[in-house]
Amino acid sequence: MLEIPDRESSMQRFLLPAVWAAGGLVLLLVSWLLLRALLGGSQAAQGPVVDVIERGPVVQTVSVYGTLQPSQSALVLAEVEGRVEELLISAGAVLDRGEVIVRLVNHDLEREADSLEVSLMETRASQQAQAARLNRELITTRNEVSAARAELPLAEKKLDMYGQLLDLQSISRVDYLEAELAVDRARRALELAEQNLQAMEEAIQAELEANELRLQSAEQRLAQARADLDALIIRAPRSGLLTSLITELEVGALIQRGQLVGQISDPDTVHAELFVSALRSAPLRPGQKVTLRVHGQPLEGRISRIDPSVSDGQVRILAELEDASQSGFRTNQEVSGQVVVAEVQDALRVRRPTRMSGQNDALAVFVETTDGLEERLLEVGIYGNEYLEVANAERFAAGQRLIIDYMEDWMEQQKRDGDQP
Q1: Segment 269-294, tens digit of pLDDT
Q2: Does this model's pTM top 0.70?
Q3: How is 108-141 classified by DSSP, letter by letter?
Q4: Domain ranges, ordered by start, for the chain
Q5: In the CATH scheme, what is the homologous superfamily, with its name and number, of domain 107-226?
Q6: Which helix (H) or strand (E) holds 373?
């Protein structure tokens, strides 16, 4: 006889595996949620960030790099064109002001100076001859004036005598009129001679002044030519260290007028010319502390200037250094270091997670309490290189253990919790 299977026993056979499968799924889901809450969502594979709150300094810095440059220096320039005849000093020498660095030669300048010297001598001789001629002409004119001055009194005396004779009717009226004409001619001759003398004196004065200007011009040209000859000897414009010489400075090389030959600087005064990424330059301010390292040696200073413009994505800053001269540093040495942009000496702090890429205003953390883990919001003050400042210190205490999560993960979890019925 066939038996009809019991309906309830069949359902039990299928229900048991389903319960086991559902239980496994629930356990897996709970494990995943706990792992995400403890380890920070998508970063769970990297492990939780566990730290202990402590007190200590928090320092935020910006990395910089650059070179040491002289604070006091002078360029060595060629004032005239010439070829290198003798190179007396090499780069690295300590020079006194006026010490000879290099000698140039320029035969054209030498010939020009000789020609100008001969021309000056000819100008002086010509002016001396001209002065003698003008002096003779002046003497002649003055004699003419003297003669005219002597003639007038005689003509006036003769006229007076003729007047007396005319009263006595000893001479004719015509004779008296001729005497009057003689006086008038004598007066006019004197006036004309005096006018000629004045005109000649003015002409001679103008000619002498023109000659003096021509002579001064000739002397200046000769002085300039001699100065150019002296400039063929290039000397140190100041005392100091000859930090550089141009590579083409060798015997026989042609040096142009105004060409840079080298640079002399004061080895005891250097500053740092530094560069920083424009993206990280916002917190930089004049007066901020700079800590540099030059071949492993520390060097302290402060920012003195920040360029207002950006070049190739970099901002140029200058830093005055402390006691750089006592450490044997040289110009153009490469340096790198940090600028302290924010600092708190005694603060509640936590170690900065290595997997943090951005600067968050707040972080979700789980603080270890006697009742287990308690979720709190940690507000970040200074975002230091190694530590984060705990801004809301009233909610935390030194010695507390915590697990750091990301704020965005915490906000997402809060949103999910709020959406649940």
Answers
A1: 788 999 999 988 888 999 999 988 88
A2: no
A3: HHHHHHHHHHHHHHHHHHHHHHHHHHHHHHHHHH
A4: 46-68+278-415, 73-106+233-264, 107-226
A5: Helix hairpin bin (1.10.287.470)
A6: strand 372-383
